[in-house]
Amino acid sequence: MALDRRIVELYDEYTHKPLDRRSFMNRLVGLAGSATAAEAALALLEPNYAQARQVAPDDARLEARHIAETVGGVALKGYLVAPKTPARRGGVLVIHENRGLNPHIEDVTRRMALAGFTALGLDFLTPLGGTPADPDAARALFPQLKPQDVVAQGRAALALLAARPDATGKTGAVGFCWGGGAVNDLAVAAPELSAGVVFYGRSPDLAKVPQIKARLLIQHAARDTRLVEALPAYEAALKAAHIRYQAIVYPDVDHAFHNDTSAERYNAAAARLAWERTVAFLAAETGAA
Asked: Are residues 165 and 71 located together in one domain of the fold?
């Protein structure tokens, strides 16, 4: 079932702008034609964590645990996963969307660990009490986050990963949507970051691009017009500063095309290719086995 583009765009507005649930549902019913049709559309758009899960939480190949650590005076909470097979590994920080550290991001963290990394899915809402179970409540917290706290948490997480006995000492970060923007900000602020992968995230302050030391892989969706239109200016700044990067725009896909909890926006072919590129890029830049 292919949804009306206006419905997909409305859902994107709902997940990224101050639009309350009641107003969203009223507009959705108007576009869908009935409450029944609206509910059917919503089932294709909203997350289905259990159906999309690729790696079981108790997968025998992995060591996974929730952590609460303080690094350099910064309180961290998150989900740390590593392969059980002994090896020196690159560390990868997995940065969530604007729903916080939820079951989907924990699953992505396990996927990253299975690819050969020590992976940390960090809860960036920790300063505000942590990620609530209700995704609408989680989204409402993000405007309260202080940019300096986001960067401080990210750098503390990188330090935690780099200090592990099995670490190569090199770290990467991958982020989705809000997390993609956070990767860009972290690249600007953290010279210790070796590699950053941005999935459909906003650009950083272009005046600060020359501060970037990491190599970047930027992956956008062609239908995500706001971000695609901003990309040329970001690329120009990266080129002017001689930053090593690759930018890819995947044709005929929507924002959040990698998120397999949303049947309507997920694109299996693009997601698979983007993930393969992500893993190869991070392995090359962090020295993962």
From this structure: yes
Q: Is 18 within a domain?
A: yes
In a domain, 219, yes or no: yes
Pairing of strands 167-176, 193-199: parallel
Please report which confidence band the pLDDT of residue 13 belongs to, taking 50, 70 and 90 as the band edges: confident
- 100 with 138: CB under 8 angstroms? yes
Q: Are 175 and 158 in contact, with CB atoms under 8 Å apart?
A: no
| CA gap 278, 203 in Å, rounded | 18
Q: Can you give the pTM of this predicted structure?
A: 0.89
For residues 127-157, one letter each, b for 16 or more C-beta atoms within 10 angstroms of the residue's C-beta and e for the rest, the string is bbeebbeebeebbebbeebeeeebbbbbbbb
Tens of pLDDT, residue by residue over 105-132, are: 999 999 999 999 999 999 999 999 999 9
Q: What is the DSSP letter of 215?
A: E
Give the CATH number of the domain where residue 198 resides: 3.40.50.1820
Structural domain that includes position 118: 56-286
User: Per-residue pLDDT averaged across 145-150, rounded?
Assistant: 97
Tell me, yes or no, whether 36 and 98 share the same domain. no
Q: What are phi and psi of 221, to 5 degrees?
A: -100, 135
Write out the two tokens for 146.
């202080």
The C-alpha angle with vertex 271 and arms to 270 and 273, in degrees rounded to 5, equals 65
Q: Both 80 and 179 in a single domain?
A: yes
pLDDT given for residue 63 in this prediction: 98
Bridge partners (DSSP) of residue 95 are: 122, 175
What do you get for the CA distance between the two ends of the chain, in Å? 42
Give phi and psi for 149, each to the nearest 5. Answer: -70, -35
> Which is more confidently placed, 12 or 282?
282
